[in-house]
Amino acid sequence: MRSSQMKFIENFKEGDRINDIYLCKHRQAAVTKNGKPYENVILQDKTGTIDSKIWEPNSGGIEEFEAMDYVEVVGDVSNFQGALQLSIKRVRRAQEGEYNPQDYLPVSEKDVDEMYSELCQILGTVQNPYLEQLLAMYFENNEAFEKAFKFHSAAKAVHHGFVGGLLEHTLGVVKLCDFYCRQYPDLNRDLLLTAAAFHDIGKMKELSVFPENDYTDDGQLLGHIYMGTELVRASIRRIPNFPKRLSAELCHCILAHHGELEYGSPKKPALIEAVALTMADNTDAKLESFREVIKSAGDNNGWLGFNRIFDSNVRKTSR
Amino acid sequence: MRSSQMKFIENFKEGDRINDIYLCKHRQAAVTKNGKPYENVILQDKTGTIDSKIWEPNSGGIEEFEAMDYVEVVGDVSNFQGALQLSIKRVRRAQEGEYNPQDYLPVSEKDVDEMYSELCQILGTVQNPYLEQLLAMYFENNEAFEKAFKFHSAAKAVHHGFVGGLLEHTLGVVKLCDFYCRQYPDLNRDLLLTAAAFHDIGKMKELSVFPENDYTDDGQLLGHIYMGTELVRASIRRIPNFPKRLSAELCHCILAHHGELEYGSPKKPALIEAVALTMADNTDAKLESFREVIKSAGDNNGWLGFNRIFDSNVRKTSR
Amino acid sequence: MRSSQMKFIENFKEGDRINDIYLCKHRQAAVTKNGKPYENVILQDKTGTIDSKIWEPNSGGIEEFEAMDYVEVVGDVSNFQGALQLSIKRVRRAQEGEYNPQDYLPVSEKDVDEMYSELCQILGTVQNPYLEQLLAMYFENNEAFEKAFKFHSAAKAVHHGFVGGLLEHTLGVVKLCDFYCRQYPDLNRDLLLTAAAFHDIGKMKELSVFPENDYTDDGQLLGHIYMGTELVRASIRRIPNFPKRLSAELCHCILAHHGELEYGSPKKPALIEAVALTMADNTDAKLESFREVIKSAGDNNGWLGFNRIFDSNVRKTSR
Amino acid sequence: MRSSQMKFIENFKEGDRINDIYLCKHRQAAVTKNGKPYENVILQDKTGTIDSKIWEPNSGGIEEFEAMDYVEVVGDVSNFQGALQLSIKRVRRAQEGEYNPQDYLPVSEKDVDEMYSELCQILGTVQNPYLEQLLAMYFENNEAFEKAFKFHSAAKAVHHGFVGGLLEHTLGVVKLCDFYCRQYPDLNRDLLLTAAAFHDIGKMKELSVFPENDYTDDGQLLGHIYMGTELVRASIRRIPNFPKRLSAELCHCILAHHGELEYGSPKKPALIEAVALTMADNTDAKLESFREVIKSAGDNNGWLGFNRIFDSNVRKTSR
Amino acid sequence: MRSSQMKFIENFKEGDRINDIYLCKHRQAAVTKNGKPYENVILQDKTGTIDSKIWEPNSGGIEEFEAMDYVEVVGDVSNFQGALQLSIKRVRRAQEGEYNPQDYLPVSEKDVDEMYSELCQILGTVQNPYLEQLLAMYFENNEAFEKAFKFHSAAKAVHHGFVGGLLEHTLGVVKLCDFYCRQYPDLNRDLLLTAAAFHDIGKMKELSVFPENDYTDDGQLLGHIYMGTELVRASIRRIPNFPKRLSAELCHCILAHHGELEYGSPKKPALIEAVALTMADNTDAKLESFREVIKSAGDNNGWLGFNRIFDSNVRKTSR
Amino acid sequence: MRSSQMKFIENFKEGDRINDIYLCKHRQAAVTKNGKPYENVILQDKTGTIDSKIWEPNSGGIEEFEAMDYVEVVGDVSNFQGALQLSIKRVRRAQEGEYNPQDYLPVSEKDVDEMYSELCQILGTVQNPYLEQLLAMYFENNEAFEKAFKFHSAAKAVHHGFVGGLLEHTLGVVKLCDFYCRQYPDLNRDLLLTAAAFHDIGKMKELSVFPENDYTDDGQLLGHIYMGTELVRASIRRIPNFPKRLSAELCHCILAHHGELEYGSPKKPALIEAVALTMADNTDAKLESFREVIKSAGDNNGWLGFNRIFDSNVRKTSR
């Protein structure tokens, strides 16, 4: 495990000689205009990716490997048309233990364990005995769930697309809902917090785990909204005497949380908690998305160009 | 059971004295401009409904009854502002056995038993052993299901909103899909027919049974698309070794059968069978809707005015 | 001033004889089918309105009055087609001093003074010296503004359409924004809180004061988004050295706070604070709107019918 | 005519030397970065197209030719950036008779003559004497029409964009309509089948014939919906006593067959047959489009990426 | 012919006794709450319509008549719920010659003959010999066309729905186009003026003549855009050597003149003249619609309420 | 100042040696595949732009310069992939006085001074004393304004994006409005002409001056619609007794002149003059846009491909 002295991709500079382990995200054979075979490779660590070339794929130093392998590479960094490029001289597949997978995955900037504790603490205040039991099935002494939940992302691309992203987003939504309950006393706090806790639980089935983090077949065909609701309904059935009306209300909140049919919810919010959950989900998603825009802008204080999510040219605010 | 000699509402004429049993759909107390109390009542049989008034609610002949009761009424038919109206003189609640419920509900014009046989026969040609088992759980020797399925409507209002409507619509869609399979050999017939059989099964949970035939609480909050898919997924789990990919494909077809997100499907059709099912569902719905427009027009061959479903003025075609 | 013993409209019952002062919202002469003249009147107090009739407009007890007058009436409550109706026997215009205008206007259920204090306290935490000066021009020792701001509504109909509504909504939005700043540190708190404080300030020009509370000519032609922004820009010009970039950022937030061009903002949010303000405004508006739906439902726990704002049938949640 | 031994483009492999006749779809002069002139050429046969280069355009072996010429080429196949490329060494214009045009055009996979027979047979069952005469003007003993109709495509790109495509699509729609008539007896079969037969007849004027198969000037300015309707109306005028109402109904079906104004129909379907034709046209178009997606996927059973027509990621179904 | 001394409906006042001839637009039998038969009648003249009642339909003075008859009525004007109503005491069908149809139809406020002269004069400046011939077929010495064109309306309801309306609108559009040609020299004046002259010619087939002025069967099924284009294309075919490209350009302008597919044009404007015609048509339609709003407002200078065409509350401008 | 003998970019031909002054629009360092540094440069004059390369950036003849500098270059024109390219051999920054800026900016084809005179003359006919004063503040003896107004463009890209463009567009709109007033007497001419004169005045703040001609920070955040209205409102405040209602009407016209909320107007047109201004603005914009399409097509009389503004394939009309 070498992360302490590891050279991260965001620190590469033209002229560097690299000798370290990276995750191979992509590999494809190609041919130059002159008919000479070469290979396109994309390497990744938690700080970014770099386009790489193997110009002599048949040379002795180039061992077998494929996408999703961790590989030790030796190579040189150059600048091609304004972007850095790595010319790989030698490469070999690394063994488990030689690397720390956390170094190769985009991760939350926040502490995952602290976030999980905070989430459990808030959910621990739910009073309704049926909802309490339901939450306990997941968030109390369920190590397998805890481990998986902490590791999952909330998206393939867009916002919260990193390790811990599902947790970070869930916590953000739960906290907003918790605040709403203080400000709008008509809200049923137990119902709203429980719905917030589970609203994106279906993402654990929609997206495969890192490093792949891509849509599963079920994800493509059924989606996280359907699968999350079904999962919760199945858990509810295992709780004796869970009130039917409460069950429908909770599942409605999950089903309707995208707010509009055209965003993939098969029902529009019909309860005040469903409306509140939609607001919290949208607020956390939009503000995190803008945070990522700001972060990727670095120290550029000017206009950043048209942004598809915000349907507008955007820029950072003066401080 | 008096249906043979019963006087149906569609045959009422101004000046008739009525003395028969009808279903009370609605009852509400009211007051005339002069402060005199009276009651608004709507009576129904399978041929239609009639606005009725009880002008002397406190007279001896007016016994207790409420909405959804079958009541024997004595009254006179008059014409008020162009529509017939029944002035109720006497009314009493009828006992089970005095009437035949079938006389009071809108019913399919087709023979329900024949339609069910035809449906089972077509579904009996499905070859895939897993899909065959799944279909058998519902359509083979399941009397409770058969009875309920035959009795259900496919809608509160719009198309197929009558006893046997769910069966008639399901059969119509299955037959269209069966024909598609002959014309487009890329279609997986077993998958498509099974999806067609179950595509609206969730309506049995979304709508309460006749005579109420209204949205249930679950129907309002979760909808038939979600509930039907969940029901089929639960049944699949009881079939050993049901292939995961096939399960996802089948459930995707059900989930996506409204064709567009804005029509309440949380996923767009992503498989050719899902596309085909959308086409069949839409074709049967639209042509049945137009049939109902034509039927309700009687012998009016002129333009019938703007129709909301077809977003156009419509008329019958010359013959 | 008789509010202590006043009989409020929400307490009227069939058979009551009424003798009290109400606000006349509407008055119109009419003729019965038989050609007899009568008058339609709508009376209002802070608990609601009641349809009223003057059947003998030329009798001695009916004195001159018109819409927006406070009138003392004597009359009897009856039930017409399911709704209460007041038959006015005598009526005279009341004098200022005989009534308390606050009894006749829909008012916030919260204490207006407390809300104003809370608002000022939060705004008092703004640090940026230019924004601090701008806020002080309105929210510090400006009695005329304070009085007008406390009395204004935030809407003609829909949400917060009552005395104190503009204050209640502004406070709700400011508090949400304040919470956002704790959860999303990228937000510029000073900018966001200031924008929240002023976001609907243009409503003071768009809507006339109570009891009229209707669109002004300027409101119809220019709208509160334009007028509010212009007002703030004019105030900014009176603050020496106010940074041009900060001015544009603040005014952009106000201009863009409806979030979408089709909702009347001439610019889409292009800064993270503008996005946040949109979220807070929408959240407070939607949750208050649903609260009003719930309140008007009384103890009806069933489905309440299609609601235009939520584009769905809605109901209260189980408790 | 050498199709038996011809080497089709879909069979080209890296390293092949080619010596055969192909259709030149495109030719354009260019210059390398170093200022050396060369030529970009696209060659086509019925199995596909290949990017080609003439690196020595002024050499002796390169004779004169232009787009839409059939040319005999000698060249070598290489792989450039993952795609095959032909380096042309010699080229000469081929003479009519040296090649079979059918080898160079995308063609229906079905037998064109059999399809035409089947179409005529179904249309031969139309009973209405006026519609029968109208159909006969085109589909009975009209060799010029038959030849042209069999050769035409139904599209420039998208579905049925091949020789015989118009026929294949028309037959598909006619057969669906024929089936509808069995299932929905309200449909006027004679009217519907006739409308189906002519619904895309305007494509013969909208698109030029192969090998060009591109929009004509009239096609761009007037479109096939207008031109097809006008053509049928003109033919109707030559049939004595053709009923005016029937004429309007038939032409309405053609005019409205895209179903929605935004898809280019100037009228929404207002008759049940117009609705049915829209359904049949859409069903055949969508299922053929998906068939073409499946075919082009070869043996790829995974997700194929976002498809613009279906507005979704798509994949083949398990078998 | 009594128009000089005729009492126009816009001058009716409560208490008037009427004895004059009016056009019967509508007649329908009805029954009062008490079962007494009566009749609803709508009478019309060029100044408006009035709801009328025949309370004693079986009395001697009530002779036979039906909708679209001119009838002499004797009756009394009263005020019912704020609107005037005529109680008909006696009625008889009037004979041709007793009345002047022009008195009973809404008519242009401008002189029809002058407008026609002005139109012909402008069209007389078209130079292109083919377009000149085409225009001459309609606008030169064609009395039947001239009479019909002058009498036609341009709409059933909305703008220009009066005698002379088609002429007034056509002239308005032609004059705008003429001005455009002076300001934008890229425009082909001959083409644009000819297209303007014919752009709504299909309305003569879409709407029946006054007093009916309602959609014809062809109008409902095919629409004026299709029929107008077809008419012009048919006329073009009778002009030897009319250039094919010019024909397509002219007909494209007519076909595309609604500007958007969703407004019923099957093609979007693809030529600058088609764009210009769309602008002129829209400008004349919108400004005439607003003129009619202003006129119907009388001397009301306040806000007139939400207007569906302008999708806004509207009012008159200060002078 | 060398414009007379200057070689304009539109006249460059392959093989030319260039030695002249051009405006540098863009400069960026790059590296070839082989690691050799070079520079991408875009040069501009009023007739167009040309891609240029400095292959030897470190050679002696390459002096310092940056974007927006005027530079004297020596270089050779070649053809790269169908487009001309300039290989720069020597370059030096030019001094003010060596060049005429007008030669380097896209300019109106019309005479700017004549257009300004014509505009002032029409505006001089406004009678209303308040509007007259308002116009005079800008269009009478205001040299600074005149100079800036004449030099400004009306757009960054799309229509009228050249020196004098704002003037040319304003004049076009004013003249259309002037003509409307003759044809539609309901229009208040003084109000409409004044609104037309100022409708795009906010563009002077939204776009920076040439040669940059790009959105300003205020332009991005507030937009020309808001800023133009605010500017006019501020000027109005300096005119004693300017009627409040007239002020609101004028500013409404400016605010609403994009016609639809989704085009950035915060209010829909609610007055007939606002509707007229929308029509004039749209007409001038569309016809000028099409003129620019036609001009850039040169002598290509065929179809020009899909045009985003017109949402259609377009072509020139036959003459």
Give a written overview of the molecule.
The structure is a homohexamer of 319-residue chains. With 319 residues, chain A is an alpha+beta fold. The longest helix of chain A has 25 residues, at 272-296. The first copy, chain A, starts with 16 loop residues before the first strand and ends with a strand. Chain A folds into two domains: 9-103, Beta Barrel (OB fold (Dihydrolipoamide Acetyltransferase, E2P)), CATH 2.40.50.140; 105-294, Hypothetical protein af1432 (Orthogonal Bundle). In chain A, the strands form two sheets. Chain A has a five-stranded mixed beta barrel with strand order 1-2-3-5-4. Chain A has a two-stranded antiparallel sheet with strand order 6-7. Chain A is built from ten helices and seven strands. Chain A is elongated, with a radius of gyration of 23 Å. At the A-C interface, helix 4, helix 9, helix 10 and strand 7 of A face helix 4, helix 9, helix 10 and strand 7 of C. Chains A, B, C, D, E, F: This is HDIG domain protein.
